[in-house]
Each structure stands twice: as C-alpha cells, then as structure tokens.
TrEMBL record:
UniProt entry tagged with the keyword Transmembrane: yes
Name of the protein: RND transporter
InterPro entries: MdtP/NodT-like, OMP_efflux
Biased composition (Polar residues): 129-146
Taxonomic lineage: Bacteria, Pseudomonadati, Pseudomonadota, Alphaproteobacteria, Hyphomicrobiales
Entry-linked NCBIfam families: outer_NodT
Family according to the record: Belongs to the outer membrane factor (OMF) (TC 1.B.17) family.
C-alpha cells in the first residue's frame, strides 16, 4: 500500500498535456521529448501497482446466530436433511407434475425475473467497461467558399489551407475542401478502486437477481400446487354434497310416503325437503370456488383463465403426502432459501457501493491521448497533411463542493445498513415460516384423526336412526340431526385433508424447496427483427392498441 492523498470534499481538475505544433516540420526539442517519454513510461509502469489499491469495507457474510433445532420439529425430523429436490413429485400426481413443468416454462412472473437477471448482467458489463481504455474515431469533410484566396492562420494557431478550385482570380471567389480524421483514447487508472467497487457491486447484483429468480420459482411452485390441491378438494366436496343431497332427497321422498300413509307429519316432510335443499345450496358456491382455483392455475401456467377447465373437470383424489417430513437443522435454510440468499447478496452489493462512494473522495488519474490529421485530399490524410497529437495524464483532485461527496458516503452506508437489517428480518421470517408450517401440519394431522373418528361415528348414527325411523322406533328429528352431523363431519374431514397437503406444501416452501433444474435466462422474451438502418413501416407507426387498428 502506498501513501495516498488525503480525502477532500470535492473536485477540481488539473490536466497535464503534451501538444505538438500543428504545422508540419516543426518538432519539440529532443531532450524535452525524451524526458517526457520516460516520465510517461514510468507512470504506466506504476499503474498496475497503484491500481491494486481499493478503499471502503471488504465484504464478508455477517454471522447469524441460529438455533440447533426447530422448536416444533421432532428429533427424527431434525436428524435427516430436508428432501427438497422435486418435492411435489412425492404427491404422486402426474397431472400436477405436468402443470409444474408448464408453469416453470411459461409463467409470466418467472419471465419477468429472467429479464431482471439479463438486465443485471448487462449492467455489470457496462460497469466492467470502465476498467478498460476507451477509444473513438472521427472523420469530417468541409466544403467552403471564400471571397478571396490565400492562406491564413487562426488565432488558435491552427493553419487552414485553401485551394482555388474554380480558377477565379484574386478578385473572385474560391472554393476549398478540407478532409479531417481523428482518434481519441482515454483510460482511467482507478487508483483507489472506485470502478472496481462498482463492478463488484454489479456482480453481487447479478447474483441477487439470480437468487430472486429462484425465489420466484419457489413461490410459483408453492402457489400452483396449493391451488391444485384446493381444486381437487373442491371437487371432492362437490361430489360429497351431491351424494348427500341425493340421499336426503330419498329421505324426503320416504317421509312423504309415510305422510301419505298417515304415519308422518307435514312438519317432517317440510324438514326433510328443507335439509336437502340446504345441502344442494352448497354446491354452486363450491363450484364457483373450484372454477376460480382452476382459472388461477391456468394463469400461473401462462395461459388464458379458461384453458385448463376441460382438462381439470375429471375428478381425481386429493393428493396425499408421505409424512412425517424431514426438516434438517435451521442453519440449512441460510443456503436453501433463495430469498435469504438474495438478501445476503444485496447486502454485499451495497457494501461494495460504500467503497465506490468513498473512492470519490480521493484523486483520480486518467491517461488521455489524441491524434488529428487534415488535408485537402482524402488520399493525403496519411501523408503530406497537417498532423497534430497529444498525450498525457490528467489528475482530478477533490477540493470542495459543500460536502456532497461525504454525504454520498453516508447515503451508501445508510443503504447498506438497511439491507443488513433486511437480511436479519428475512432470516427471522424464514424461521417463522418453518415453525408455523411444522405446527400447522402437526396439529392438522391430529384434527384429521378426530374428524375421521367423528365421521365414522356419525355415519353409524345416521344408518341406525334411519333404520329405526322406518320401523317407527325413532323420531324424524333424530334422522335429520344424524344426517346433518354426518355431512358436516365428512365435509370437515375433506377440508382437513386439503389443509394437511397445503401445510405440507407450505413447509417445503418455507424450507426453500423449489425448482432446482436448469433455467434458461439468456433467451429474451421479445426477439427483434430488422433492427438495422431502415425506413419505418407506415403500418407500424400508425398502429393503435390493441395490436393495430
């Protein structure tokens, strides 16, 4: 490390240039040129050493205090690592597997995340270009007419050569043509690593965008499987309501026959008909919820809402997971959860930005050079022409600007602190998600066992009460109560089975399970054609939304 200039508050520029005369044949003294060349060569030789210096904090992942086990996990669950690879396939539903593949390929949120990755990579490429020299070429041709011929010199010292091309005398006019060519190059040495910190920040931004893409896939697969399970649950509940309503209609018909025979009352008939109608009233609302779930699945796969209606209409059982689910240890989610990874990469990105802001407080040195030539004929640009060149270092030294640069450092530090807090918050949220899912899954399994026992008992009670009613050993109110209780218990059991599977999905989502296969982030969504120089298409220019007139 070398002794740097002390940081100051702002910038004023001092330039050192070596300029040769514009008139051919006049040269600088040889000793001065040799000394200048040695100085420049020495500066170039020192440039790699000087460029090795950077300012600002070097990033290191912050330590995170994690518990040894999840509080709601059993010892057996903690002993095995989470099985996150293609976890939805363990639901053994080929239709669901196909839908997940389609969603990964065509979901619009995922497509947006892919574009964000490409954007971050392009931004990094732009930042990386600042580490290399830049060069530009120029050319021009000027045709002019003057009232008199001759050779004149401008106040700036640049000679202008004119040629009489129309044969006019001294009292006539003259036309002149001047060809000019030029070449400019510059290179910032980045002595204090400002540009390298910017590239470092952009690199972390690329990694954060890639993690956000993975997080979008985790969310997508979790949402898709949840809606799919809910749709199958609605189908099962619709079938249950339809069967129950048909059975209750049979009971109402039996009651009417007993009323016609004088062994039942009109009240019993009305109650039987009312209960059947009440059960049938549940069907339209269930069908509406089912349709909404299917529409959502279609949109998640990048299709119009009604696309999957016919494919989903065939009823299939509610997917049932294999339990219990291994969870591993809490520290695993730091690597498995892409949102945690994205938050950590964003912290790294803004830590590098602090170094970039601090580098603005220090001097910067650039090497600049230019070459220009002019002639009256294009063929003379390389010979017999007026040639000028310049080369030398340029020093920019911060001096004063009202504390703007120091405020920039404080701004970068405050942004870094926000992302540090965001990382800690993301880790706590991840832990909360896992704990909540574990508790929900465990308690729902207990509830399902009770509901299954309840449904079995109410089923026995409904059969017995109906048999006793037919033989006159029980009142019709007992039948109504038993059938109502049975339907409620069976419907609650179906909902509980849906919740068990959705809790299973939520647990894998909380653990960071998602798509771990290849994702194409290089192919753009929009492929432009005919992008070279061309006349605009009149139809395209006048096109109106949507997609034309």
């Amino acid at each position: 490390m070398y002794q740097a200039f002390p940081p100051a508050a702002d910038a004023a520029q001092t330039s050192i240039e070596s300029l040769s005369p514009a008139v051919p044949g006049v040269t600088n003294p040889r000793p001065i040129r040799a000394a200048r060349r040695r100085a420049l060569l020495g500066l170039v030789a020192l440039a790699p050493l000087l460029a090795a210096c950077v300012v600002g904090p070097d990033y290191a992942p912050p330590p995170m205090a994690m518990p040894t086990n999840f509080a709601a996990a059993t010892k057996a669950q903690a002993q095995k690592p989470a099985q996150l690879h293609a976890w939805w396939r363990r639901l053994n539903d080929p239709t669901l597997d196909k839908l997940v593949d389609e969603a990964v390929a065509h979901n619009l949120d995922v497509a947006t995340a892919k574009a964000a990755v490409r954007q971050a990579r392009a931004t990094r490429a732009q930042q990386a270009s600042s580490l290399f020299p830049s060069a530009n070429g120029s050319a021009s041709i000027t045709r002019s007419q003057n009232a008199a011929t001759g050779t004149s010199a401008s106040s700036s010292g640049t000679s202008t050569i004119t040629v009489d091309t129309d044969g006019a005398g001294s009292s006539g006019t003259s036309r002149t043509t001047q060809w000019q060519g030029g070449f400019d190059a510059s290179w910032e040495l980045d002595l204090f690593g400002g540009n390298r910190r910017a590239v470092e920040s952009a690199t972390y931004a690329v990694e954060a965008s890639e993690a956000q893409l993975r997080d979008a896939l985790v969310t997508l697969i979790g949402d898709l499987t949840t809606y799919y399970v809910q749709a199958r649950g609605y189908q099962a509940r619709i079938d249950l309501a339809t069967r129950t309503a048909a059975s209750q209609r049979e009971t109402a018909q039996l009651t009417r026959q007993k009323f016609d025979a004088g062994s039942s009352s009109a009240v019993d008939v009305a109650n039987a008909v009312g209960q059947a109608a009440s059960t049938e009233a549940d069907i339209p609302s269930l069908q509406s919820s089912y349709a909404q779930a299917v529409h959502r699945i279609s949109v998640l796969t990048g299709q119009m809402p009604g696309t999957l209606t016919s494919a989903m209409n065939r009823s299939k059982p509610i997917p049932s997971p294999r339990l219990p689910v291994p969870t591993g240890v809490p520290a695993d989610i730091l690597a498995a959860r892409p949102d945690v990874r994205a938050a950590e990469r964003q912290l790294a990105q803004y830590t590098a930005s602090v170094g970039n802001a601090q580098a603005q407080l220090y001097p910067s040195v650039s090497l600049t050079g230019s070459l220009a030539t002019s002639a009256v004929k294009a063929g003379d640009l390389g010979k017999g022409s007026t040639i000028s060149w310049s080369f030398g270092p340029s020093l920019t030294l911060p001096i004063f600007n009202g504390g703007q640069l120091q405020a920039g450092v404080e701004l970068a530090e405050a942004q870094r602190d926000q992302y540090y807090v965001a990382l800690r918050s993301t880790v706590l949220t991840a832990m909360e998600d896992v704990e909540n899912s574990l508790v929900a899954l465990s308690k729902e399994r207990q509830r399902a066992r009770s509901l299954q026992e309840s449904a079995k008992a109410y089923g026995d009670a409904a059969r017995l009460s109906r048999a006793l009613y037919q033989t006159g050993g029980s009142s019709f109110l007992d039948v109504l109560d038993a059938e109502r209780s049975l339907y409620s218990a069976q419907d609650s059991l179906l909902q509980s089975r849906v919740l068990i599977t959705t809790d299973y999905i939520a647990l894998h989502k909380a653990l960071g399970g998602g798509w771990d296969g290849r994702v194409d982030t290089k192919t753009p969504e929009v492929v432009d054609v005919n992008t070279g120089p061309h006349l605009p298409d009149a139809n395209t220019v006048s096109a109106m939304w949507p997609f034309g007139n």
